[in-house]
Write a structure and sequence with these properties.
Chain A: Belongs to the ABC transporter superfamily. The complex is a heterodimer of chains A (331) and B (259). By secondary structure, chain A is α/β, with parallel strands linked by helices. Chain A has eleven helices and 13 strands. Chain B is α/β, with parallel strands linked by helices. In chain B, helix 4 packs across helix 5 and helix 6 runs parallel beside helix 7. The chains are: A alpha/beta (331), B alpha/beta (259).
Chain lengths: 331, 259
């Protein structure tokens, strides 16, 4: 059974030019104990998906989905109170851009204490609670690799380096022992040794505590190593999803191929300073989305049919949405 | 052949400021030495707070060194002489978004360095601006645009154009690719490599992304705690790292890129 199952999620946002589909029929599913990657560039709607799952979107935006369930319970028809409780108890979110996501007027320690749920404290006298909380927080701070916990807890978010902030954010997400961690670019801008440390920690938690992780990033180098499944997004459309290894070896969608090519680390045969293959143009803004397949204007293989939105096609256990896929010979 | 840029015993000591983690010791950059040939790319890698950005600042003259000298083409750069330096060494900043003045059109933005540093008349300047914009893959009409009308990748191109417009010999870039998306990042990497091949400028850049460092740099400087701990050819450093810290970096990178 799926832990999280989202089918045909469409999110419409009101702009000056009327309603725009910021997410267009996105499918995500996550089994218990699985690490799934959601890959996409900025503006592809990754963060909107996170906010839709935890229910942190403005009410006037239109959310429609064929199915959006958490352990079989429908998230969309749930009362707000029940949904909040569920989100608090069972999910944790690592927000993108950690230094901005913290409250600048409270110390990191205060904010960490807030994220420890009451039920995790032993039944002691009320004056022992603070100590219990702190012990728990310190344990997690050490886990994520912060040695100097006292200084860190007394600091305000702007006083510590960005990567320390990111680690504190991770600690605060993990301290409530969630079943699902939604990590929105947890290693952004991190130096590589720190990055490896964080990725190891997440992998270990996944193995020992059966933590499911929805890992959102555009850093294929980080994702490629830990995730089992991958979903590639472009401008709010799912372009391809399937097993990580398959997607990396034989991408079907031109966009997946372009993303893989953009990471020179994956290509051993590339001579130094050779031009990297890249898509021309840039990511369209929400106000100027092309019709049909949204990659159309940038796609090297685009033809006349691409003005119609391609419907997702299944191939073995992966799906892709493209009229003219690459590597078709694997059928 | 003498080298394009020669840095001798450059050192710097930051005035002590009571920030959180550096309350007792102020930052100190130990004397560093390196040379750069024309048409060569050098990458500086290292931890946060290792002094990478300080080196960049010292090179472009945004900070005053305590000792040492920077020699470009046999000519010593005077520490306070910004006018002499900004013709030869130019900088590209990490966030093109915040380094472009939102109140100016790109034409006016690119006009400024020309006005301040050259004797060209208005007509000539306009021609140079249009040429430079075309050179970085934009159109001449973009001179009438404002920064907010451009996408992230285009802004980075403008930042490169601003660095190129005075025909510098060295370009220093502080994390030029960090804020860009993968597909746009490849475009920028291609642009810089191509410009370097065409114009033969020396290029010094700071990056966390070892994949790109390995791809475009000829030489690498590894820094830690204000010291250069290892320097050498990209090939050598990636295959036979000597210092423990470099080993850690390279192994971490390899463990990710393997499989």
């Amino acid at each position: 059974m799926f832990l999280l199952d989202v089918k045909n999620l469409t999110l419409e946002i009101e702009t000056t030019n009327g309603w725009v589909k910021a997410l267009d029929k996105v499918n995500i599913s996550l089994k218990r104990g699985e690490i799934s990657a959601l890959v996409g560039e900025s503006g592809s709607g990754k963060s909107l998906i996170v906010r839709t799952i935890v229910g942190a979107l403005p009410e006037r935006w239109k959310i429609t989905a064929d199915r959006m369930t958490w352990k079989g319970q429908d998230l969309l028809s749930m009362s707000e109170k029940a949904r909040r409780k569920l989100t608090r108890d069972e999910m944790s979110v690592f927000f993108q851009n950690a230094p901005d996501a913290f409250d600048p007027t409270a110390t990191l320690g205060e904010q960490l204490r807030e994220s420890v749920p009451d039920k995790m404290l032993d039944k002691g006298f009320f004056w022992q609670r603070k100590q219990q909380r702190d012990a728990l927080i310190i344990k997690y701070l050490h886990k994520v690799g912060i040695k100097n916990h006292r200084q860190c807890m007394q600091a305000y978010p702007h006083q510590v380096a960005d990567d320390v902030c990111q680690k504190v954010m991770l600690a605060s997400a993990l301290v409530s022992k969630p079943e699902l961690l939604i990590a929105d670019d947890p290693t952004m801008g991190m130096e590589i040794t720190n990055k490896v440390q964080i990725l190891r920690l997440l992998t270990r938690l996944n193995q020992t505590q059966n933590l499911s992780i929805l890992f959102i990033s555009h850093d294929l180098l980080a994702i490629g190593n830990m995730a089992t499944d991958m979903t590639v997004l472009y401008c709010g459309q799912t372009v391809e999803s399937g097993k990580m290894a398959q997607l990396r070896n034989k991408p079907l969608h031109p966009y997946t191929q372009a993303l893989l090519n953009s990471a020179p680390s994956f290509r051993k045969d590339l001579p130094p300073k050779a031009p990297l293959s890249s898509l021309s143009g840039t990511i369209p803004t929400l106000q100027h989305l092309p019709i049909g397949c949204r990659l159309g204007p940038r796609c090297p293989r685009a033809q006349k049919e691409c003005v119609k939105t391609p419907s997702p096609k299944k191939l073995q256990n992966r799906s892709y949405s493209c009229h003219f896929p690459l590597n078709r010979s694997i059928e | 052949m003498s080298s394009l840029l020669e840095v001798k015993d450059l050192s710097y000591c930051a005035k002590s400021r009571g920030t959180l983690f550096k309350r007792e010791q102020s930052f100190k950059l130990e004397p560093i030495n390196f040379e750069l040939q024309s048409g060569e790319t050098m990458a500086i890698i290292g931890d946060n707070g290792s002094g990478k950005s300080t080196v960049a600042k010292l090179l472009v003259g945004a900070a005053m060194p305590d000792s040492g000298s920077i020699i470009l083409n046999g000519e010593t750069m005077q520490p306070g002489n910004i006018k002499q330096r900004c013709l030869k060494i130019r900088m590209v900043f990490q966030h093109s978004q915040s380094s472009l003045n939102p109140g100016l059109t790109l034409g006016a933005l690119l006009d400024e360095p020309l006005k301040l540093n050259t004797e060209y008349d208005g007509y000539e300047r306009r021609r140079i601006i249009e040429e430079t914009l075309v050179k970085v893959g934009l159109m001449a009409e973009h001179a009438h645009f404002y920064a907010h009308m451009l996408s992230e990748g285009q802004k980075q191109r403008v930042a490169v154009a601003r660095a190129l417009i005075l025909n510098p010999e060295v370009i220093v870039a502080d994390e030029p690719f960090a804020a860009l998306d993968p597909s746009v990042r490849s475009q920028t990497v291609n642009l810089l490599v191509k410009l370097q091949q065409d114009l033969g400028v020396g290029f010094i850049f700071i990056s966390h992304n070892l994949g790109i460092v390995r791809h475009i740099s000829d030489r690498i400087l590894v820094m830690r705690h204000g010291k250069v701990i290892e320097a050498g050819k990209t090939d050598v450093i990636f295959n036979w790292p000597k210092h423990d810290y470099t080993k850690k970096l390279i192994y971490a990178y390899q463990s990710l890129s393997k499989r």
